[in-house]
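Reproducibility note. Readers wishing to regenerate the assembly model reported in the main text can use the exact inputs given here. Chain order matters: entities are listed in the order in which they were concatenated for prediction.
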Amino acid sequence: QVQLQESGPGLVKPSGTLSLTCAVSGGSISGTYWWSWVRQPPGKGLEWIGEIYHNGRTNYNPSLKSRVTISVDKSQNQFSLKLNSVTAADTAVYYCARSPVLRSYGTDVWGQGTTVTVSS
Amino acid sequence: QSVLTQPPSVSAAPGQKVTISCSGSSSNIGDNYVSWYQHLPGTAPKLLIHENKKRPSGIPDRFSGSKSGTSATLGITGLQTGDEADYYCGTWDTSLSAGVFGTGTKVTVL
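Running the prediction on these inputs yields the following C-alpha cells for the assembly.
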C-alpha cells in the first residue's frame, strides 16, 4: 500500500520560500502516476497547486505558476514543492497526493498534510 | 477562485438522503470525468467516487455519483453521523491544463 508523508518547515517568513518534500513509500515514484500538491487555507476549500510525472513533466495552477516549482527525485523516491515570495495568504495545510495517469481515476492516495504558517 | 461551484451546506436527519451538486463548464466537467472526495479537517481527503459514478473498493454503496453535461451530483443515502464532513468535487480543466476542485459542501446530520 503506497503511503505519502509530507515534511518541511512549519513556519516561513513573508517574502521567503516555502519548501516541502513528499516521501513515497510502498511503491515507486516511477510508476504511471501524477504526483501532486494540494493545499487548504484556514476556513477555505481545497486548492490544486500542481503536479509532476516521474519524467519531470509538470502542470501548475495558473494562479500560482509564476511562484511554484515542483521537482522529483527518483533516487530518493520523493518529490518536492517550492513556493516563492510567500505571504500570509499562503498559510495552509499542504497535502501531497497521487493520481493515476488516467485522470479519470481521481486522486486516490493522499498524505496526512502538513501545516505551514507564513509569519514573521 | 474555484471554477466548480457547490452549495455551501446541506443537511438531513439520520437515515435520510442528501445530494450535492457541482456545477462547472465545458472545459472541465463537460470534457472530463468527475471525482468526489470526503474531507474531515485535519485528515487526508478520501476518494469516494471516480469516473463520475464508480466507487473505489471499500466505499459503501450509500455513496453514488452522476454527471450530466457540465454538472455532477453526489448522493448519500442512509445518512449517518459519521458522514458529517466536507465534500469536494474535482476534475481536470482542459483549458487551464490544471486540476480543479469545487468550493466544497459541508454535510450536517441533524
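We highlight two features of this model. Chain A touches chain B at residues 36, 38, 45-48, 50-51, 59-63, 93, 95, 97, 103-108, 110-113 (CB under 8 Å). The radius of gyration of chain A is 14 Å.
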